[in-house]
Amino acid sequence: MIMGFNSGLDIERSYYAATANPSPLHAPLTGEVDADLVVVGGGCTGLSAALHAAERGMKVVLLEGGRIGWGASGRNGGQMIVGLRKGAAELVKLYGRERAKALFDLAFEAWGLVLEMIERHAIDCDLRKTGHLVCAISAGDMAWFERELECLTTVMDYPHMRILSAAESRAAVDSPYHGALYDALGGHMHPLNYTLGLARAAIAAGVTIHEASPALRVDRRGGIRVETAKGAVRARHVVLAGDALLHGIDTKVESRIMPVGNYIVATEPLVDAGEVIPSNAAVSDSRFVVNYYRLSADGRLLFGGGERYTPSPPADIQAFVRPHMEQTFPQLKGRRIDYAWGGLVSVTTSRFPHVGRDGEVYFAHGYSGKGVILSTLAGKLLVEAIAGETGRFDLFKGLNPMPFPGGAALRGPLYVLGMLWYAMRDRLKH
């Protein structure tokens, strides 16, 4: 990750940074070193890959341009949502029942893997297994919920979902929706502390981490050589795990993602937090441009939302997000906001992750809002592929989203036009 691309986003003043577990500083890379695997990016994808590779006996060096976890992994909404961005019914429509179920099962494994990592490595990250709600902003969404529930139950063999009426939804979260789709296996956590826990586990397994060491280029001549300003790592393989912050390292990989900004606020601790979200579930709504929110361990509302379709941040993040929060919860109008931050995440044309390889260059990114748990699995799949175990990796690789049309010059404007259309459709639902 390169910290310059997060300038103005107040990541260092986020709620997560303010409540982060102690973590060591890691010296920048100086000089040339050798490894079996070099990982670019100190988020969950890169740390998971590094940890799983080290556990297989590989010598691993990880390069992070800023601080560990200060990319999307450490500043997201912290919502643990089972599945892919596309729903179960759409998976079946796109790929047929057998392949769709295989994809869903693999995505479900990501949920179990994250819970296993938390337990095995004693990661203190405010884990709450309180469920996840998708709330309907229009009555028409309830028909989609019915179709989705039927597919999940009959095709995916996933019996953990149920539909809530408008009254039941209001009892779970005090905002007027038409109903909700509730997943009992959802939940939420402190994503930065989870990421720092993965880093601690990776170090214990023998991984060498260098912070403040942005990767500048990958030289493939005569093997892999990743160069930084003050050093280089020579290795047999490289994992690119910088997501929206790779910036010029591999244009072929980057052509399949669009960096977009997302922004979150954290209120003051709420004495009535239990009345705002009585279920303490993680919540998102049915908009294409999603609002998402949850309670923190100390009773704050963490709310992400707003329509921002370019990487440039709003001049005032708090002022940008507050109207969306107060529209959802009018009872919180005027409540103090203690933290406001943002950052870049990546989406793909298909909204499926972009996982693959090009020679000895392996990569995974473009989680399109589902990276809280998918990223840990993706790192593991990359290492399986490096070790020659390609079956599960190939399943995700086969999703292979198309490049954004027009290359770097046009993908931004075309994406903005598309998102404006979806935003207008969201408004017409009301």
From TrEMBL:
The keyword Oxidoreductase applies. One of its GO terms (molecular function) is oxidoreductase activity. Residues 34-79 form the Rhodanese domain. Keywords: Oxidoreductase. Transmembrane segments: none annotated. Pfam families: DAO. GO terms for cellular component: cytoplasm. InterPro entries: FAD-dep_OxRdtase, FAD/NAD-bd_sf, Rhodanese-like_dom. Coiled coil: none annotated. This is Oxidoreductase.
